[in-house]
Give the backbone structure.
Amino acid sequence: MGDRADEGGDGVTTSRSRNKAGTGLKIERVWTTEGVHPYDEVSWERRDVVMTNWRDGSINFEQRGVEFPESWSVNAANIVTTKYFRGAVGTPEREWSLKQLIDRVVTTYRTAGEEYGYFASPADAEVFAHELTWMLLNQVFSFNSPVWFNVGTPSPQQVSACFILAVDDSMDSILDWYKEEGLIFKGGSGSGVNLSRIRSSRELLSSGGNASGPVSFMRGADASAGTIKSGGATRRAAKMVILDVDHPDIQEFVVTKAREEDKIRALRDAGFDMDLGGSDIVSVQYQNANNSVRVSDEFMTAVENDGGFDLRGRLDGSTIETVEAKKLFRSIAQAAWECADPGLQYDDTINGWHTCPETGRITASNPCSEYLHLDNSSCNLASLNLMKFLRADGGFEVEKFVKSVEFVITAMDISICFADFPTDKIGETSRAYRQLGIGYANLGALLMATGLPYDSDQGRSVAASITSLMTGTAYRRSAELAGVVGPYDGYARNAEPHKRVMRKHAAANDEIKPTSPVATAIVREATKQWTQGNKIGDKFGWRNAQASVLAPTGTIGFMMDCDTTGVEPDLALVKFKKLVGGGSMQIVNQTVPRALRSLGYPEEQVEAIVEHIADHGHVVDAPGLKPEHYPVFDCAMGERSIAPMGHVRMMAAIQPFVSGAISKTVNMPEAATVEDVEKIYFEGWKLGLKALAIYRDNCKVGQPLSVAKSNKATTPAAVETAAAAPAAPAAVEKVIEYRPVRKRLPKKRPSETVSFSVGGAEGYLTASSYPDDGLGEVFLKMSKQGSTLAGVMDAFSVAISIGLQYGVPLETFVSKFTNMRFEPAGMTDDPDVRMAASVMDYIFRRLALDFLPYERRAELGIFTAGERAAQLRAEADAEAAAVTGAELTAMASSAPVEAPAKTEAVAQPAQEMADVAAAKPAPSVGSSTELLEAVIGKAADAPLCFTCGTKMRPAGSCYVCEGCGSTSGCS
């Protein structure tokens, strides 16, 4: 991005002042070409975005003719259109092109950058705007959602997604907390607060009575959050509540949500609707917040040594009670085992990396625990798409990554100059300390694509190297900005501790042990960035009190078409993909074939392995795949899931190179024990994490239950941390057993018989259906009566028929028996199924064609000859429409409001396929999580989206909806 125009200028002023000395940044081109606008380098097309209501199928959003690059997925375009385009739908003011959205944001950043003296000349400002435009257009990075919501609009220019509040031991402060939290929730953001300053219920009021205690006041805040959510928000209010481990009410705080979970079970068994979003769930408390205990080194050492620990009064610090540290730690683990709360935040580690201790301690975090800094402050986030820096040969674009971090950090700091904040106190702190949170997404995809297991020394080495390079470059740019427009206002009083933390980061970088040429090159550059940055910082200070966090990247991850969010591994090897003409299909993650090629597999084997994954959802027993390569394809869920400690080790590898923390929940299998939770929490402290939360499958009643019997055995692959101690006693629950009921066919039923030939072997298939046209009986006739083959076919027919009558879906049989290979196989006499891998393959393809709706067959890849022909025509029409699309783009530039009406042919290139899709019901599977459930036969613990009703998928410590982009936490 170039050097400053004058490192030695007098540009070091306060952070609020403009650059008066005439110095500024010289901007060099990295991604763009001089004389060519970024918009002219991509192909554009028009699309229709129509979103339906999951309850009744009615249309709740419709905007036709929106303009996006051809390379953007349907999901990315849908989410940007519904979430980020401003203006009332159907009015001329409504944005209809991605160009308008990017221009609205980038123009604001450029104007503010020039106004506040960031650039050496107008020409540098223009290059900066073009580079930022190119990166956003090509999905190299994204700002957090509030930037897209607010920047360049008449609304307040709020750019931050994460907030930390403060509450003191007075009613005025507590009521201010309720109000400030409500204002933040109203704007769709989240906040966190530490309640440890509030005196405990075991202390006295000035009037002589007993205090209520913080847990009591939590009830009021929880009710407020729930009311604001139910009053119109489309997601739960995102909030974090923290209590110090030495607070006298800590034991009550620890069990609050676990005890409420007991209530949920009792009410559910009594017949009340206690599912997520159920009508009766509002009767239980503390459901709108994540809870965390702030533990100290003193406490953890007492746990390690089996010692006592003092709970101290808030008024005078006197000891109220001495408890057994190990017993209290066990109660924390027990509660987390039961309901996933509370998580832990490691206080001394957090404050040991604090750049501004002279201003105040870090006491709290945002709801997802990645932003940790001063009370009454906020953090502005942006995330880079790591896959954009992966070269075809498996190398990493180190230089482009460095330059991209420079651009993003510069833009993020500019935003604080013009940003608005929800409260005056937050605004003052944010402007004085200018906290930024650059991060990344697609780490899991990057590691898999390069053939590295997520849970491996090689994978952790690459992840640590990239994170160190990102943060080192961010702080180096921050130091350069301090030389141009001055350090943050609070730097002078915190200069020495800030320098100390920078040295700690640099020392941690020196400890990285690269295990590959790629990691070696990245670490070499990271060392250079830390050395240069600390040298410049010693001279000018730093512009920002913090630079990096690792956020969930939920909605913006979809905007960038990322396969994985934040630091997460792949959710699964198969996922659900929306199609341009409507409908959807199951695909194998495109990272998989790239990984196989990186590992040296020939193309024929790649195709065979991908086909196996498509059929089974995992790589176990894939043809030709070496068992030593299985770990490369381990995922967060499924047949081969990453062990809990694998997640913890990855977090520990990258934590020393992050200013804040890491938003990530360590998923544990249902068979995990309380001792396993204890070990995870203890190892998190030992490994230097700042925050850690766990989630044990099916520990919450308000989540879907398993639909298949889960494996109760604790295996090394499933629970690496299993201990020899017996499992914690599970709560005795009322078990309601549901038995299937056989639905027999009537004596007289419609049927049809098909004669077939597969590889020369002939036979007959007779299928009988219920009067409502559902398949209920199958008879197969091959060979002579009395032969072994005829007997096997008769028995098989009876088994399939009884299964159908007991309610086994036909698609289940189809998915199991198609692609089964054995002789006879080959050509058939059926025009819709020209080739069959076996008789079973043919029979169930024929049954699917005759009895399954189009969408179900599309998911299974089964089409009639006519449908395949229509697909080919659609592809041909799409190629022809590319030229027409370019003409329409030119027309749109002169008549943007009317242009959408002229693009019907481009949006729907294959009318035949559209007609078929329109005549069929919607598929039951609507997201990658639901698809994964179908593959592994076990329900995933994820809530339904309050907006569109599809099952959400994990994103850090939150959840995100693939259908509409809504999140359960911070944007």
In short: The chain is about 40% helix and 15% strand.
